[in-house]
Q: What sequence folds into this?
C-alpha cells in the first residue's frame, strides 16, 4: 500500500517542461493535411464496435437486447425482465468483464454483471474486446470484455432528445437526453424509465401429455435511472465527472415446472456510480488520474423458501496512468490501479473486504505502414498476496501495402480471482480457492475493401483456442449445501466470422451485417481424471451461432430486418438432455422527418415475427410475437 501511494505521488509530481516562445510575426498559410496509413490501435486482437445507428435504434432497450441481436455475444437470459448474463468464447458469465469508462461495474459478490439492467441509451459507444485483448483495459475477462463509454461532443451545440417506446405486454420505456455547453465546457443529462408487466402466453408442454396454453406471470419490472456528465477541456488539461444512479424492482418467475404464487419471488437492485478523471498532457507525454466509487445493493426475497437476502457492496477505485513516447514509433504506458471492495451481507459471517493493487506496463510499436506490435505485463497484489503476472503480446501485419488487409496474431495469459460469494458465502464458501487462469491463442484475418465509390465490403475471420486452468465449480458437499472447488480444466476453441457490406446510392443506402461463430468447449475433472462433459460440450454453450441484419434507407423511410440463430445447448453434464436450436426474426419500419433543426423519428417494430417458441434457459419460455411503437424527437440548437 505504501509503495502504491509513493508511486502516485511521484507520478503526478513529475517536473513539467516545454515552453514555446511566442513569435511577433504571424504568417497565415493554407491548411496542409498530412496523412499516413498506419496500423490501428488494437494490434493482435479482435475488437468490434456496435454500429451507432443500431445503438440509436436500441436506445430505449437494454444492452443485453442490443448485444444478443447484433453481435457474437451469447446472452444467457431468463426472459423479459429477468437476469441476462453475457458469455463469450465458450466461457461462463463470470469470465466476461463489463467496463464502464475504464472502470469495472461487475458486482464483486457475484463476479458478474446483469446486462438487462444497463439501458443502451445511457452510453454512447459499445465495444467488444475478445479473449486476451480484454487485458488492454482489465484483467479477469477470460472470454473477453464489453466496454461501455460515454463521450463528449465538442461541437458546442445544444441538444434535447426524447425517446418513447410502447409495446406488447404492458411495456413502456422513455429516455430523455439534454446536452448544453460550448467548446470548453459541456453538460449532458440523461434520465431513463422502463416498466413492463411481461405477462405473455406460452405453450406449456411439461405438465402433461397434452400441451396447454398458459400465461407467464411474475415478470414485472420497474426501472429508473439518471446519469449526469460534466466535461471540460483547456489547452493544458481536460477532465470529467460522471454520476450514475439507477434502481430496478422486479418479480422473478420460477421455472414452469414449479407452481408459484403471485409476487412470491422478488429482487430489488440499486446502484450508484461516481467517476472523476483528469487528463494532463505535458510535452510529448500524457498523464491521467481517475477515481471512482461504486455502491451496489441487491435485496432478494422468496416467501416460499423463507429467504430474505440483503446485500450491500462498495468499491473504491484509484488509477494513475502515464503514457510517453520512446523513440519515433514506440509508446510506453504505465498504469497503477488500486481497487478496494467491501461487502456487508446477511449471507456472510461478517463484513468482508478485498484489496487489489495492480501495476501494468505496456509498449506498442509501429514499424512503418505495415507492422504493429504490442506487449503488456500486469502484476496483481491481492490482499498482500502477489499473483503470477498476466501477459499479452500481439502483432498485426498489413499483407498488401496500401490496403486494409491485416493479419493479426496474439498470445495471452489472463487470470480471474474467485468472487466474494465463492469465498465467503454461508454456508458453502471456500476461502482457500485458487484463482482461475487461461492461456489463449488467436489468429485473425481482417479485410476492408472499397470496391467502388458506392460499395464497401469489410470482413474478418478469427481462429482462437484457450486453456483454462483451476476452473471453479459449485458441487454438492458432504452436508446439505453446495461448495465451490477448483476442480477442472476447460479447453475452448472455435472460429468467428463477420461480414459487412455497405451500398451508398444517390437516393438510397443499404447495409448488410452478418456473423457466424463455431464454439467447442470441453472440460476435464482434475481430481479424478474424468470428463466434465462426456460428449465434449459444456452446458448452455451453443456450438453454432449466427446473426444477420439488413437495413435499407430511401430518403426519409428506412427498414431493418434482423435474424438470430443459436444451436443446440446441452443442459446436463452427460449431454443427454438439451434445448433445441432456435431462430427468431425482428422487423423495424420507420420514417424520419427533418423540420428545420428538429427531427421526428417514428418507427414500428415486430419482434419474433414468425412467433417461434423457444427457450434460452430450460423451463423459462420466451415470448412469442410482440409489437412496439417508438417515437424519437430531437431538437438541435446550433451555437456559433
A:
Amino acid at each position: 500500500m505504501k509503495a502504491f501511494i509513493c508511486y502516485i505521488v511521484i507520478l503526478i509530481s513529475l517536473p513539467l517542461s516545454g515552453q514555446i516562445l511566442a513569435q511577433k510575426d504571424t504568417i497565415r498559410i493554407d491548411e496542409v493535411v498530412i496523412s499516413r496509413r498506419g496500423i490501428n490501435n488494437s494490434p493482435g486482437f479482435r475488437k468490434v464496435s456496435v454500429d451507432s445507428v443500431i445503438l440509436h435504434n436500441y436506445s430505449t432497450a437494454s444492452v443485453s437486447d442490443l448485444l444478443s441481436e447484433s453481435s457474437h455475444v451469447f446472452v444467457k437470459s431468463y426472459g423479459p425482465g429477468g437476469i441476462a448474463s453475457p458469455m463469450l468464447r465458450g466461457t461462463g458469465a463470470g469470465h466476461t468483464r463489463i467496463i464502464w469508462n475504464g472502470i469495472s461495474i461487475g458486482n464483486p459478490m457475484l463476479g458478474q454483471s446483469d446486462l438487462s439492467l444497463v439501458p443502451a441509451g445511457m452510453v454512447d459507444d459499445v465495444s467488444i474486446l475478445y479473449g486476451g485483448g480484454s487485458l488492454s483495459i482489465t484483467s479477469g475477462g477470460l472470454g473477453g470484455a464489453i466496454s461501455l463509454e460515454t463521450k463528449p461532443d465538442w461541437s458546442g451545440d445544444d441538444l434535447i432528445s426524447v425517446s418513447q417506446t410502447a409495446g406488447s405486454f404492458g411495456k413502456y420505456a422513455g429516455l430523455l437526453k439534454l446536452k448544453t455547453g460550448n467548446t470548453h465546457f459541456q453538460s449532458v443529462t440523461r434520465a431513463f424509465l422502463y416498466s413492463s408487466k411481461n405477462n405473455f402466453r406460452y405453450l406449456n408442454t411439461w405438465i402433461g401429455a397434452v400441451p396447454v396454453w398458459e400465461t407467464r406471470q411474475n415478470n414485472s419490472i420497474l426501472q429508473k435511472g439518471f446519469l449526469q456528465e460534466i466535461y471540460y477541456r483547456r489547452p493544458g488539461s481536460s477532465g470529467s465527472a460522471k454520476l450514475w444512479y439507477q434502481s430496478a424492482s422486479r418479480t422473478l418467475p420460477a421455472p414452469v415446472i414449479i407452481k408459484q404464487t403471485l409476487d412470491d419471488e422478488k429482487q430489488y437492485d440499486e446502484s450508484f456510480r461516481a467517476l472523476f478523471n483528469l487528463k494532463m498532457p505535458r510535452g510529448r507525454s500524457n498523464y491521467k488520474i481517475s477515481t471512482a466509487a461504486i455502491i451496489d445493493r441487491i435485496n432478494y426475497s422468496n416467501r416460499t423458501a423463507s429467504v430474505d437476502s440483503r446485500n450491500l457492496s462498495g468499491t473504491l477505485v484509484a488509477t494513475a496512468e502515464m503514457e510517453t513516447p520512446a523513440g519515433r514509433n514506440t509508446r510506453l504506458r504505465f498504469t497503477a490501479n488500486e481497487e478496494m471492495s467491501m461487502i456487508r451481507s446477511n449471507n456472510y459471517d461478517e463484513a468482508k473486504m478485498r484489496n487489489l493493487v495492480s501495476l501494468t506496463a505496456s509498449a506498442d510499436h509501429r514499424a512503418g505502414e505495415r507492422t504493429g506490435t504490442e506487449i503488456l505485463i500486469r502484476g496483481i497484489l491481492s490482499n498482500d498476496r502477489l499473483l503470477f503476472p498476466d501477459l499479452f503480446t500481439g502483432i498485426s501485419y498489413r499483407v498488401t501495402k496500401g490496403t486494409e488487409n491485416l493479419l493479426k496474431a496474439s498470445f495471452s495469459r489472463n487470470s480471474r480471482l474467485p468472487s466474494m460469494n465463492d469465498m465467503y458465502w454461508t454456508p458453502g464458501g471456500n476461502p482457500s480457492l485458487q484463482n482461475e487462469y487461461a492461456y489463449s491463442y488467436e489468429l485473425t484475418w481482417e479485410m476492408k475493401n472499397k470496391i467502388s465509390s458506392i460499395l464497401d465490403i469489410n470482413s474478418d475471420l478469427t481462429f482462437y483456442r484457450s486453456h483454462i486452468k483451476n476452473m471453479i465449480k459449485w458441487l454438492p458437499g458432504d452436508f446439505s449445501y453446495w461448495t465451490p472447488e477448483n476442480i477442472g480444466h476447460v479447453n475452448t476453441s472455435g472460429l468467428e466470422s463477420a461480414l459487412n457490406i455497405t451500398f451508398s446510392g444517390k437516393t438510397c443506402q443499404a447495409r448488410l451485417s452478418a456473423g457466424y461463430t463455431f464454439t467447442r468447449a470441453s472440460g476435464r475433472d482434475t481430481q479424478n481424471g474424468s470428463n466434465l462433459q462426456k460428449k465434449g460440450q459444456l452446458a448452455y454453450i451453443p456450438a453454432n451461432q449466427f446473426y444477420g441484419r439488413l437495413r435499407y434507407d430511401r430518403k426519409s423511410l428506412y427498414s431493418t430486418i434482423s435474424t438470430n440463430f443459436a444451436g443446440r445447448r446441452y443442459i446436463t453434464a452427460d449431454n443427454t438432455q438439451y434445448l433445441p436450436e432456435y431462430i427468431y426474426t425482428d422487423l423495424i419500419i420507420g420514417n424520419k422527418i427533418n423540420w428545420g433543426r428538429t427531427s421526428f423519428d417514428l418507427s414500428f417494430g415486430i419482434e419474433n415475427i414468425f412467433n417461434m417458441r423457444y427457450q434460452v434457459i430450460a423451463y423459462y419460455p420466451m415470448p412469442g410475437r410482440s409489437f412496439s411503437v417508438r417515437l424519437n424527437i430531437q431538437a438541435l440548437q446550433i451555437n456559433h
The first strand starts at residue 47 and ends at 49. The radius of gyration is 25 Å. Residues 1-36 have pLDDT under 50 and may be disordered.
